[in-house]
UniProtKB/TrEMBL annotation:
UniProtKB keywords: Cell membrane, Cell wall biogenesis/degradation, Lipoprotein, Lyase, Membrane, Palmitate, Signal
Any one cellular-component term (Gene Ontology): plasma membrane
Function per UniProt: Lytic transglycosylase with a strong preference for naked glycan strands that lack stem peptides.
GO biological process: cell wall organization; peptidoglycan metabolic process
UniProt-recorded name of the protein: Endolytic peptidoglycan transglycosylase RlpA
Organism name: Kushneria phyllosphaerae
Length: 314
């Protein structure tokens, strides 16, 4: 669907070709409202009336079968052939995102659903339909989870087309595009982490640990004493506070900025320890193995892959 937004025809003959192509890709011309009104617009548009989409929730990853339409192994648009991935596993790419809105509202997506610009959806050229993905605006670190159910955009310099709601949540409506990172989500792993997070939250509310209550004082002591932390084997930290080290930076200002960023994103305490000229940014303390793995997964989703499990000198 968004493919045609990117390839708007200037002549009736080319329009007919594109409508046929859209039908082959997923029936984009068969949605409500008739094709004439949509194709008469030379550009996409914002909603007619302002709608607050700041509270529109992320798409919830769940296991779904591949859509019956939109998943042919290869397809061709304007002479260029695209190969649909057999799986989204491990997919993570950086590129430019755009968005599509009023012009396509109510029309069929490539997998046969109706496009709703007020939901967290997206179009991608090669990911299987549907795919759940986290999209992060690299300019402001805002992120959303979308469900990819459409094909496009067919600009060479674009990676993904986002719904109006997703683009608004990422604060990119003003410029119309943004540089983003797109990371596919495994629904089974996401659900397992989500369930673990709920268990950890319930356990914390039932019996908040003493170590958690002492976190601010401990962090202040860490910063003033220059405490060092060293990697240890995964099972050798019984009786010690556990941290996940995200980075070791040469600049104190950069380390403090990363700490603030992580605390905002994770809603968990983050400390900076100093050793020689290095400033180590560490998430914690983490009370139990379930919490450690939950935070590790959150950091991986946020793009922090070089993590070290460390202990503090309690």
């Amino acid at each position: 669907m968004s493919s045609l937004k990117a390839l708007l025809p200037e002549s009736a003959g080319r329009l007919a070709v594109l409508i046929v192509m859209a039908t082959l890709l997923g029936g984009c011309a068969s949605g409500s409202g008739g094709a004439g009104g949509r194709y008469a617009l030379s550009r996409d548009a914002y909603p007619d009336r302002h709608t607050d989409v700041s509270k529109v929730p992320d798409a919830v990853p769940q296991v779904e079968p591949l859509s019956r339409s939109g998943n042919q192994s290869t397809y061709q648009v304007l002479g260029k052939r695209y190969h649909v991935l057999s799986s989204s596993e491990g997919y993570s790419q950086t590129g430019r995102a755009s968005f599509y809105g009023q012009k396509f509202q109510g029309y069929d997506t490539a997998n046969g659903e109706q496009y709703d610009m007020y939901t967290m959806s997206a179009a991608h050229r090669t990911l299987p339909l549907p795919t759940f993905a986290r999209v992060t605006n690299l300019a402001n670190d805002r992120s959303v989870i979308v469900r990819v159910n459409d094909r496009g955009p067919f600009h060479d310099d674009r990676l993904i087309d986002l719904s109006y709601a997703a683009a608004s949540r990422l604060d990119m409506l003003g410029d119309g595009t943004a540089r983003v990172r797109v990371t596919a989500i495994d629904p089974r792993q996401w659900q397992a982490r989500h369930n673990n997070n709920q268990q950890v939250a319930a356990r914390s509310e039932a019996s908040p640990g003493a170590s958690r209550a002492q976190t601010p004082a401990r962090r202040e002591a860490d910063l003033s004493s220059g405490e060092t932390s060293t990697p240890v084997p995964g099972s050798s930290d019984q009786g010690s506070a556990v941290y996940l080290q995200v980075a070791a930076l040469g600049s104190d200002a950069s380390a403090q900025a990363l700490r603030d960023k992580l605390e905002t994103r994770l809603s968990r305490p983050v400390r900076v320890t100093r050793h020689a000229a290095m400033h180590r940014v560490q998430v914690g303390p983490l009370d139990d193995p379930i919490m450690v793995e939950s935070v590790r997964s959150e950091l991986h989703e946020a793009g922090y892959d070089q993590l070290h499990r460390v202990t503090g000198s309690d």
